[in-house]
Design a protein that fits this description.
This protein is an all-beta fold. Strand 5 and strand 6 form a beta hairpin. It has no helices and eleven strands. The model has no long low-confidence stretch (mean pLDDT 95). Strands 2, 4, 5, 6, 9, 10 and 11 form a seven-stranded mixed β-sheet that branches. Strands 1-3-8-7 form a four-stranded antiparallel β-sheet, with no helix packed on it.
Length: 127
Amino acid sequence: QVQLVESGGGLVQAGDSLRLSCAASGLSFSVYTMSWFRQASGKEREFVAGIGRVDSSAIYADSVKGRFTISRDNAKNTVYLQMNSLKPEDTAVYYCAADATPYYTLVSRLRGAYEYWGQGTQVTVSS
């Protein structure tokens, strides 16, 4: 049974930093592309950042580029999202996700490409 468990969310002020973690179990973590999505209240879930399985190549949404960094530790079966210079518009529930296709090399921005999802962690940024 695949489980993705996010942690690290919280309430911070604008300009602060947070690091989210997503611990995976029940799958061969190193062969899966991993991504972070977020969903603000009343809005659709959107892609934030993704990281490949082989060379840890990463892609980002334009809204977070330069502020957020995704990384992974395959020895710990964990993917991270370092979030700096947080803004109120970053307020959302953040979800990690694993691609539906193991060994796939490309990082997709599409929700439908991901089969496994965590339960989410709330990030609230006050102004």
